[in-house]
Every structure is written in C-alpha cells, then in structure tokens.
Design goal:
single chain; Rossmann fold; Arc Repressor Mutant, subunit A; 4-stranded antiparallel sheet; 9 helices
C-alpha cells in the first residue's frame, strides 16, 4: 500500500444528490471504485429517506435541485446530522460559494470537475470529520476536540470525560457547533441562548463566553474554539 493511501480514512458511506442522472452515475461509479459505499438521490425527498434509513458520512450535494434546493438541504443536514457536505454547482459565483459555506457546507466544487478532484476533496472532508477513522453516531457533533450529544446535552472530551457546563453554556456550544465559520453578534447569541433563571452570574454574553472558555479552551487567554471577531461578535472557526 502506498503512503498516500495509508493516510486516507476507511471506506465511507456517501450519498450523491443530483437530478442529472449521468452526473450522479459518474460520481457514484468513480467513488465506488475507490472503495466507498455510494447511494444516489435525485432530490431532497429522496435524500431525507436515505438519511432516515442510514445516516451517511458524506453527502455530495448539488446546489440546483428540483423542489427543495441544495442550500436548504445543507442547512437541514447541519441541524440534524454530522455528515460532511460537498456542495456542487453549475454556476461558479462568489455568492454561491459564500452561501454554500455559510449554511454549513465543508467544501465547494464547480461543474464540470475532474472526479479525481472530487474524491481528493471528499477524502479531506472525511479526514477532518473522522480524525480517529470512525464516524460519529447520529445526533452527535464535533466541537473541536469534544463531542456533543444533542439528545442528552453532554459534552465529552478525551476518554469520554464529561465537561460540566450550565444549560446556557451547552446552548452556546450547540449554536457554535452547528454553525462553524459563522460570526454571531452578541445580540444573536443572547436570543439563541437566553439567560436562565437559575443562573446567578452576570448575564452579559461577554462574561458568559469568558466562563465557557475557562471550561473548554486549552488556554482561555488564546482561545481556539470561540474566537472574538472585533466589532462583530464571536466565531467558531471551520476546521
């Protein structure tokens, strides 16, 4: 086995969502040949059925689909699953790229493209999302070195160590984990993670972010997970 192959993640479950059958078959055939298990969906309804049957590790998602478009589907995927998202589009414009990344896509590729480039970018997404070679169960999200279980509200670190957080701190973690790369204004964060009656501390968002950093950052003075964007708010960087 070559060194480059040894660095690749193992076989992945991939769903290709494209209403152009020839494009979908081309992608599926190439990725199957690379050892991945590939399913196809022609639209949003078919994707939802496939994800309900078995969540995928990666969704290759066309932006322009009949009915529900790719941006809406990417937003839905981000809210409910930990799958990687490779966005495809026939129109390569800055607006499309920014819009796709803002709703949670991991990468963006314009048609026409070489299947080798698609596979290389897909492997990069899988490597970032599966650093230990294993996908997360449904309902779990990565947050830096941590894993958040949305159903139980548990944030765990290395060795399944539970990080003790208040209810609002957990809500803040979920907001950031669901929206990597997005800058949130202070007012937005207060709306999304409002103060709780049982929290006796200062209710300003800055003080809450400071306390959260003390619990989750390796060096709270040099935060890596929740960064301050001067004059704008806070950001969880895209990995």
């Amino acid at each position: 086995m070559q060194a480059a192959d040894a660095e690749k993640p193992g076989m992945a479950d991939i769903i290709v969502v494209d209403d152009e059958a020839d494009v979908a078959f081309m992608i599926a055939d190439f990725l199957n040949g690379k050892g991945h298990a590939v399913r196809m969906a022609a639209d949003g309804s078919a994707l939802r059925r496939e994800m309900d049957t078995a969540a995928a590790d990666l969704v290759v998602l066309d932006l322009n689909l009949p009915g529900e478009d790719g941006l809406s589907l990417a937003r839905w995927l981000r809210e409910h699953f930990d799958a990687g998202i490779m966005m495809l589009t026939g129109v390569d414009t800055p607006f499309d790229r920014v819009a796709g990344l803002e709703v949670g896509a991991d990468d963006y590729l314009a048609k026409p493209f070489a299947p080798e480039e698609l596979e290389a970018r897909s492997v990069a997404i899988l490597r970032r999302r599966r650093p230990n070679g294993k996908p997360l169960p449904a309902g779990h999200r990565r947050f830096g070195p941590y894993v958040l279980d949305e159903a139980t509200g548990r944030l765990t670190g290395e060795g399944d160590r539970v990080i003790q957080l208040s209810a609002m701190e957990l809500e803040l973690v979920l907001v950031f984990a669901r929206n990597p790369g997005r800058v949130f204004a202070r007012e937005e964060l207060l709306d999304l993670a409002p103060p709780r009656l049982d929290d006796p501390f200062d209710r300003s968002i800055d003080s809450r972010i400071t306390r959260l950093r003390r619990r989750i950052e390796r060096d709270p003075a040099k935060p890596e997970l929740i960064k301050t964007v001067r004059g704008a708010g806070y950001l969880y960087p895209r990995s």
